[in-house]
């Protein structure tokens, strides 16, 4: 069994460049062999996220042990995540992390860099070497919805409530959620969901492809464990190569995709049978 990682103690990047505090990351992180589990762990604040949360997510991605194949993202308490910490909207902001006001006063390049860094917390969850599963229950609002969208698969409890709240608050979703949402549900449905900021419940989430599976809240952990076991039953390198193929498929012609399949298979044959005489 791999050594469990101690919680991150380093301050994260912040909206105004000042130091973040470890208490503000609101994350718990454990590695058990091939499985890493990231838990949003500020249940009293409905797992609201801060810049420090995203900095910590990025750090986890950067330092993920090579043996990890499945990353589970889950939430403690009544909600998966109520989105960005609403203190960011106040003049005081989040202690040590600034506010949207302080971010607005950044120059264009610094603002761009700030959002880019925040996005790094989400993007690594799509890496071909891993499969990420969001175990979503209760509210998944704004940044919470986008964190679920950053994962490859979503297994949800029947009390789930997805909501892309950003447009209602005058913002756009900028934590990498727009592309996966469109890919999953199509442009019309994504437009409907985002521009109304309405709630999508479990039955609709399943119907439109936002969720792979709906179970009761009590069954959620077992359902995620079962899916993890299934995912770990395939060959590690073949799984990564297949994920690379699947991820690239939409951007390639059939001919190009066929060529990509040949190239990946050549590498598999070499690895599997290349040593035989
Ligand atoms: N940021 C900071 N604190 C929050 C947040 C948040 N996003 N959401 C909830 N909390 C806090 C509440 O202030 C409250 O704290 P308190 O006990 O100290 O008063 C505690 O969490 C519990 O919240 P309730 O509203 O009492 O919990 P309830 O279960 O009734 O409702 C719900 C949950 C629906 C998620 C509600 O809290 C809510 O609407 N939160 C705000 C959602 C939001 O607008 N998020 C921003 C989206 S945009 C983006 O993410 C970029």
Q: What does this protein structure show overall?
A:
The chain has helices at 51-62, 100-104, 108-123, 143-150, 178-185, 187-196, 202-207, 220-232, 236-249, 254-273, and strands at 27-32, 35-40, 70-75, 131-136, 139-141, 153-157, 161-163, 199-201, 213-215. With 277 residues, it is an alpha/beta fold. The strands form 2 sheets. Strands 1-2-3-4-6-9 form a 6-stranded mixed β-sheet, sandwiched between helices. A hairpin with a 2-residue loop joins β1 (27-32) and β2 (35-40). α5 (178-185) crosses α6 (187-196) and α9 (236-249) packs antiparallel against α10 (254-273). The longest helix is centred in the last third of the chain and has 20 residues, at 254-273. It is globular and about 65 Å long. The relative contact order is 0.11. The model is unreliable at 1-22 (pLDDT under 50). The site of acetyl coenzyme *A has 17 residues, from β5.
Describe the structure concisely for a colleague.
By secondary structure, the protein is an alpha/beta fold. Helices cover 40% and strands 15% of the residues. A six-stranded mixed sheet has the order 1-2-3-4-6-9, with helices on both faces. The chain has a three-stranded mixed sheet with strand order 5-7-8.
């Amino acid at each position: 069994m791999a050594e469990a990682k101690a919680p991150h103690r380093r301050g994260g990047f912040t909206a105004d460049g000042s130091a973040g505090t470890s208490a503000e990351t609101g994350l718990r992180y454990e590695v058990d062999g091939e499985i890493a589990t990231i838990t949003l762990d500020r249940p009293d604040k409905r797992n609201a996220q801060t810049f420090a949360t995203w900095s910590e997510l990025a750090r986890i991605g950067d330092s993920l042990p090579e043996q990890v194949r499945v990353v589970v993202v889950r939430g403690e308490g009544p909600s998966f995540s109520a989105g960005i910490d609403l203190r960011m909207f106040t003049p005081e902001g989040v202690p040590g992390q600034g506010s949207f006001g302080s971010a607005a006063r950044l120059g264009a390049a610094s603002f761009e860099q700030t959002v880019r860094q925040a996005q790094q917390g989400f993007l690594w969850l799509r890496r071909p070497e891993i499969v990420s599963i969001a175990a979503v229950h209760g509210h998944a609002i704004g940044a919470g919805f986008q964190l679920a969208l950053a994962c490859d698969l979503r297994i949800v409890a029947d009390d789930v409530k997805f909501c892309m709240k950003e447009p209602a608050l005058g913002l756009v979703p900028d934590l990498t959620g727009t592309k996966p949402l469109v890919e999953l549900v199509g442009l019309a449905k994504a437009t409907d969901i985002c521009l109304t900021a309405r709630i999508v419940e479990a039955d609709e989430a399943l119907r439109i492809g936002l969720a792979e599976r709906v179970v009761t809240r009590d069954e959620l952990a077992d359902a995620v464990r079962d899916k993890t076991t299934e995912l770990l039953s395939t060959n590690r390198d073949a799984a990564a190569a297949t994920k690379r193929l699947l991820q690239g498929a939409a951007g390639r012609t059939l001919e190009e995709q066929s060529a990509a399949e040949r190239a990946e298979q050549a590498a598999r044959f070499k690895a599997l049978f290349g040593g035989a005489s």
